[in-house]
Design goal:
The protein is of the alpha/beta class. About 40% of the residues lie in helices and about 15% in strands. The two termini are about 30 Å apart.
Length: about 170
């Protein structure tokens, strides 16, 4: 089975290196694909008719910064959620933004999680490890072919006591 890929959308070279180091330190073997602006992220995910670029295989997870050149992260997120091919890919906002409005708008646009980047490397590395365990190992998403027949409602999980909603 081919390892799941992670798309990192980040324009800061230091944060890219930090994420790559955190993947290595945490022994995360998933391929990390890096794009450095919002337009490149959209082209990677959806292709580009003008350049003839075909969409890449969908990643299992997108780590998305908000402050990006060319196309801002919130617009990238909006585009991801508006396209049937990408609408179910988990998107984690990984940002240094401290703006409450960024968090609110990210959730309104459909992010799955909003995480402020820890400044200290060991904390950041632990954050990346935990993200990977949850989103790449535990979380399940429907395949593209399943989304056309999926219901819009979810069945609640059972709690340890067997009661719904746990």
């Amino acid at each position: 089975m081919k390892p799941k890929t992670v798309l990192l959308v980040e324009d800061n070279p230091d944060d890219i290196k930090l994420t790559e180091r955190a993947f290595k330190k945490s022994h995360i073997l998933n391929e990390l694909i890096v794009v450095t602006d919002g337009a490149e992220a959209i082209d990677y995910l959806l292709g580009n008719e003008k350049t003839g670029r075909q969409p890449a295989e969908s990643p299992a997870l997108i780590l998305l910064d908000l402050k990006l050149p060319k196309v801002p992260g919130l617009k990238v997120l909006e585009t991801i959620r508006a396209n049937e091919r990408t609408e179910n890919i988990p998107v984690v906002i990984l940002t240094s933004s401290r703006e409450e409005s960024d968090m609110i708008q990210s959730y309104k646009n459909g992010c799955n999680s909003f995480i402020r980047k820890p400044i200290e490397f060991n904390e950041f590395s632990d954050c990346v490890r935990q993200l990977s365990v949850y989103w790449l190992l535990l979380n399940e998403v429907p395949s593209l072919k399943d989304t056309t027949t999926a219901s819009s409602s979810c069945i609640p999980c059972s709690s340890p006591a067997g009661e719904p909603g746990g």
